[in-house]
Automatic annotation (TrEMBL):
<dbReference type="GO" id="GO:0044205">
    <property type="term" value="P:'de novo' UMP biosynthetic process"/>
</dbReference>
<feature type="binding site">
    <location>
        <position position="207"/>
    </location>
    <ligand>
        <name>substrate</name>
    </ligand>
</feature>
<dbReference type="InterPro" id="IPR013785">
    <property type="entry name" value="Aldolase_TIM"/>
</dbReference>
<comment type="similarity">
    <text>Belongs to the OMP decarboxylase family. Type 1 subfamily.</text>
</comment>
<feature type="binding site">
    <location>
        <position position="33"/>
    </location>
    <ligand>
        <name>substrate</name>
    </ligand>
</feature>
<comment type="pathway">
    <text>Pyrimidine metabolism; UMP biosynthesis via de novo pathway; UMP from orotate: step 2/2.</text>
</comment>
<dbReference type="InterPro" id="IPR047596">
    <property type="entry name" value="OMPdecase_bac"/>
</dbReference>
<feature type="active site" description="For OMPdecase activity">
    <location>
        <position position="61"/>
    </location>
</feature>
<feature type="domain" description="Orotidine 5'-phosphate decarboxylase">
    <location>
        <begin position="5"/>
        <end position="222"/>
    </location>
</feature>
<comment type="subunit">
    <text>Homodimer.</text>
</comment>
<protein>
    <recommendedName>
        <fullName>Orotidine 5'-phosphate decarboxylase</fullName>
        <ecNumber>4.1.1.23</ecNumber>
    </recommendedName>
</protein>
<feature type="binding site">
    <location>
        <position position="186"/>
    </location>
    <ligand>
        <name>substrate</name>
    </ligand>
</feature>
<keyword id="KW-0210">Decarboxylase</keyword>
<dbReference type="InterPro" id="IPR014732">
    <property type="entry name" value="OMPdecase"/>
</dbReference>
<dbReference type="Pfam" id="PF00215">
    <property type="entry name" value="OMPdecase"/>
</dbReference>
<feature type="binding site">
    <location>
        <position position="11"/>
    </location>
    <ligand>
        <name>substrate</name>
    </ligand>
</feature>
<keyword id="KW-0456">Lyase</keyword>
């Protein structure tokens, strides 16, 4: 069976837990995601640990955001780990995004548009007035022009972003919650089925899977539900 287009966020406090979650979910999902918590604690070795024997695709979610020269060096430093995807913040601007793209030619650079934890009141307070859609579409367009081949946005904006950038760009949506699951610190959320129907290529799902007593079964259930819906 083809693994579901899900990246499981391995936001674990220790490497053993992350590696265990990775091995439990790998039969059901296409990708595992390493974020700041694990990478800052364990460094590059974490990639081999979660990749394990299965060789699952690893998404390195470091959300780089600095001047172009610094991001270029950081992207070059992690490119040797061959992550399938590496994130940078779109707000770093086109020169910074291009620097990451050029420094990591074998990795898809995904530009994070507007964090899924922000609601419209938050956006207004940080100076992004108007609907999230406007800022997300603007950041998506400039990121693609700068060479990003993937974008991170919430499921709320994914159809508008698809219209903006067309096919051929990988759209990645965190902020995904199965019906009835706790929203926690996310703000702009939708179900896995809705996110996929609206045009997402890869769904990032963390706690609804890893917080379950059986992460393998939770991943399998979401994967089965996506298959039924498609
Ligand atoms: O806008 C963004 C960008 C990245 N993330 C990351 O995705 C996961 C979501 O985890 P859940 O447990 O499903 O909430 C997490 O690793 C974030 O760092 C995001 O949520 N929003």
């Amino acid at each position: 069976m083809t693994p579901a287009p899900i990246a499981v966020a391995l936001d674990a406090p220790d490497l053993e837990t992350a590696a265990r979650w990775a091995s439990l979910v790998t039969p059901h999902v296409s990708t595992v995601k390493v974020g700041l918590e694990l990478y800052l604690r364990y460094g590059p070795d974490v990639i081999a640990s979660v990749r394990g024997a299965s060789g699952v695709r690893v998404f390195l979610d470091l959300k780089l955001h600095d001047i172009p020269n610094t991001v270029s060096g950081a992207a070059r430093a992690v490119a040797r780990l061959r992550p399938a995807i590496l994130t940078v913040h779109a707000g770093g601007g086109p020169a910074m995004i291009r620097a990451a793209v050029e420094a990591a030619p074998h990795t898809a650079i995904a530009a994070v548009t507007v964090l899924t934890s922000l609601d419209e009141a938050d956006l207004e307070r940080i100076g992004l007035r108007g609907p999230a859609d406007d800022a997300v579409r603007r950041l998506a367009a400039l990121s693609v022009e700068a060479g990003a081949t993937a974008l991170v946005c919430s499921p709320h904006e994914v159809s508008a972003v698809r219209r903006e950038v067309g096919d051929g760009i990988t759209l990645i949506t965190p902020g995904v919650r199965p019906a009835g699951a706790a929203v926690q610190d996310q703000a702009r959320v939708a179900t896995p089925e809705q996110a996929l129907a609206d045009g997402a290529d890869l769904l990032v799902i963390g706690r609804p899977i890893t917080g379950s007593p059986d992460p393998g079964a939770a991943a399998a259930a979401i994967a089965a539900s996506l298959r039924r819906a498609s």
